[in-house]
Every structure is written in structure tokens, then in C-alpha cells.
Design a protein that fits this description.
This protein is α+β, with helices and mostly antiparallel strands and 392 residues long. The two termini are 27 Å apart.
Length: 392
């Protein structure tokens, strides 16, 4: 399984992520030419080799009307555009990029808009992105979305995110780090501060991570085939970079336990209740098998699959909710596909999709609960909903 690991030990920003991913391509200059050929108004992206703390990586310089981002922001002869969601949708819709990439770009912007809306207490329709909505951010987000489509990893894992410390100056004044919109975007993501003063994770970086990363945690066991370093503009005591690693992750195996017992004196209702309680308590799976027992009596074999740490609890549930006098256990080695849930845009809005990969297999299945809700709300059949989604 092809996996991508993102090291966010110095945070994440749009230009750093795109620069790091660019280093994974065999012909990065060709990608830069194609990016500049998209026609993003007033924008030209330049690839530069940069050294931070002795490490060589790539910095992507975004020029707006011939000037770098920071210079253009302070030059009154150039208008640093402040756009709302409607303007962004119009701009992205005209870009000559694949439809799925457009959907990714707009999904990232919607995450930012929702976070800004919460932070400033205004409807999403009234959010103006300030520096986030300027053309340099359009280039950064579009570049990351295009690069990830080209690299096409089966799974994306990121480390906990270093957000920095202190304060940051923005259009609204001086704010604490992480800025309110960034903090909202990083809900449910493991983050930490530290002794480095400054904003290490930007709203754009946070939104890109939130949209694409399927899991946050330690680096998985993988055979690394390519490494990329994306450099930031500022200098810190530590190398200011995002590092990405692309490689093959070993197919997953784990160890589980099967608990089982025989019963011949329970009603169907009582067995059904026992099955429900076992699932509620964390069983991986529960099933029953009709069996023949001594004295030719019909009976039922209860089988419970569970993790090692849940064995004792599952055993207690079996004794409490069945009539068995003994529970057997067997240790099993299990081969499993890596399972992730991603959200995709459809004609009906966002829909969750389960993706399972490994052992040379990739399977996708839309979340049934989401399909059922759409079918009920739109008075459609499940088949009609699926046809509209898949045929899009």
C-alpha cells in the first residue's frame, strides 16, 4: 500500500506543503510550468533551492504581479484581493484542472470559510478571506491538490501538529497562536505548542491537513522511496520545513481473540439481547452457529471476536447475558485491509465513503446511512442516488 507521511514538527503552511510534495515528483520543473500555465490571475510560482540549518529543500516563491507575496501586500500600487466564497468558486471553476481537483480546492476553502465564520461570528456568505483568499493562497491550495492527485497515495498519515507559541499579527489585530480560525480547523487533531515563538501552522495549512489526512499519529512502518523537504521563509533555531515521505506500507496483520461458548436453553430474544450487549461493549464481531449437542439436543454456538485488551470484559458479558457455564478462547492472527473514511462532494452535498486498501486490493463503498438520508429527503430510491453520485 502506497502511503504518504507528513512530518509537521514545524507546523504546516500551504507553500511548505506544496514545496515538499513537489520534491516527490520526477520532473518538478514540468509541474511548475503547468501550474503557471493555469492562468491564476497575476500569479507566477518560482521554485528555489533553499538551505535551513544545513538541510537542502525547496521553497516556492509566489509572485503577484511580479512581486513576492509580502512585498505585494505592502505595495499600494497593487491590490491584494480580498475575496468571498462566491468569488473563489467562480475563479476555481474557470481553472483548467480536473473536476475532482476543483472539488478538493473548494472543499479546502469551505473549511477555511466555516472556521473564519465561527471565529468572527458572521455568516459564511459574509466571510472575506483577507490574506487567505488572495491569489497566492489559491496557488498554494491548487498546487497541493494537484500534487496529491498526481502522487495518488492510498493513505496519508501526519504527525501531531506543532502550532508554535506567542502571538501573530493579522488583518484583525494581534491574536494568540494558534489563531482562532486555525484552532477551530485543528479540532480533533493532536497539536502542541513549544518554545518557538511564532505562527507555525497557518489556516491554509490546517485546512489542507484536515481535508486530506486520514490519520494523525506516529510514522507507520514503511519502505521509504522518496523524501521531500518544503522550506518556509522564516528562520528558527530548528529547520523550518515540512518533511514528507512516500513509501510502501506493509500490509496489516494483527492478533485478535475468539471467545466461544455453547448454549441450549436460551430463547431467541435472550440470545438477541446478548448479541446486542456484546457489540455495545466493543466486540469486533459477534455471530451464532446452530449446532447439535449431547443427547441430540439442538443448541447454539456463540462466537465473539475481540481485541486482546477486551477479552476480560467480553467474557464477563458472556457469563452475565448467556446461560453458559464456561467460555473458551483461541488466539488468531488476522490479515486486514486498511480502512479509512473520506468525505466526497456529490450533487447532493458531502457524502462519506469507506475506502479499504491493502494486499493489492482497493475497495470503495459509500456510507449507507448517508445514502438513505438523501433518498428519504429527495424521495428517491437508493439506486437512483448511487447512479447520480457514481455517474457524476
Amino acid at each position: 500500500m502506497k502511503s504518504l507521511y507528513i512530518d509537521c514538527g514545524m507546523g504546516a503552511a500551504g507553500d511548505m506543503l506544496s514545496a515538499a510534495l513537489l520534491e516527490l515528483l520526477p520532473d518538478p520543473d514540468n509541474f511548475i510550468d503547468r501550474l503557471n500555465g493555469l492562468g491564476i490571475p497575476g500569479v507566477r510560482v518560482v521554485r528555489e533551492k533553499t538551505v535551513k540549518c544545513g538541510i537542502t529543500g525547496t521553497h516556492l516563491r509566489v509572485e503577484i504581479h511580479g512581486q513576492e507575496e509580502g512585498e505585494a501586500a505592502h505595495d499600494h500600487s497593487h491590490h491584494h484581493s480580498h475575496n468571498g466564497m462566491e468569488e473563489i468558486e467562480h475563479l476555481v471553476g474557470k481553472l483548467p484542472i480536473p473536476t475532482m481537483v476543483k472539488l478538493d480546492v473548494l472543499a479546502v476553502y469551505r473549511l477555511i470559510a466555516q472556521a473564519e465564520s465561527k471565529a468572527h461570528g458572521v455568516p459564511v456568505s459574509q466571510v472575506h478571506f483577507h490574506e487567505v483568499g488572495a491569489m497566492d493562497a489559491v496557488a498554494d491550495i491548487t498546487a497541493v491538490c494537484l500534487l496529491l492527485r498526481e502522487i495518488d497515495p492510498d493513505r496519508i498519515v501526519a504527525s501531531p501538529v506543532h502550532v508554535g507559541s506567542g502571538t501573530v499579527r493579522c488583518a484583525h489585530g494581534i491574536l494568540p497562536v494558534p489563531a482562532p480560525a486555525t484552532a477551530d480547523l485543528l479540532r480533533d487533531v493532536p497539536i502542541y505548542g513549544g518554545d518557538i515563538a511564532g505562527e507555525l501552522c497557518t489556516p491554509t495549512g490546517a485546512a489542507l491537513l484536515k481535508h486530506f489526512v486520514t490519520e494523525f499519529g506516529p510514522m507507520p512502518t514503511m519502505k521509504v522511496s522518496a523524501i521531500g523537504y518544503g522550506m518556509g521563509k522564516k528562520d528558527f533555531p530548528r529547520a523550518n520545513c515540512v518533511r514528507v515521505m512516500l513509501g510502501d506500507e506493509a500490509d496489516r496483520e494483527d492478533r485478535i481473540f475468539r471467545l466461544e461458548c455453547n448454549v441450549d436453553d436460551m430463547t431467541g430474544e435472550a440470545m438477541g439481547f446478548a448479541l446486542e450487549r456484546l457489540m455495545e461493549q466493543g466486540a469486533l464481531d459477534v455471530f451464532t452457529i446452530p449446532i447439535g449437542m449431547k443427547k441430540s439436543r439442538p443448541g447454539t454456538l456463540f462466537c465473539v471476536l475481540c481485541r486482546e485488551e477486551d477479552r476480560e470484559r467480553m467474557t464477563q458479558v458472556l457469563f452475565r447475558h448467556t446461560t453458559t457455564l464456561g467460555v473458551r478462547e483461541v488466539s488468531l492472527r488476522r490479515s486486514v485491509l486498511q480502512r479509512n473514511i473520506e468525505t466526497v462532494d456529490t450533487p447532493f452535498g458531502p457524502v462519506r465513503r469507506k475506502v479499504s486498501t491493502g494486499y493489492g486490493v482497493r475497495r470503495e463503498k459509500y456510507e449507507n446511512a448517508d445514502l438513505v438520508k438523501i433518498a428519504r429527503d429527495r424521495n428517491l430510491s437508493l439506486e437512483e442516488v448511487l447512479e447520480a453520485i457514481i455517474g457524476k
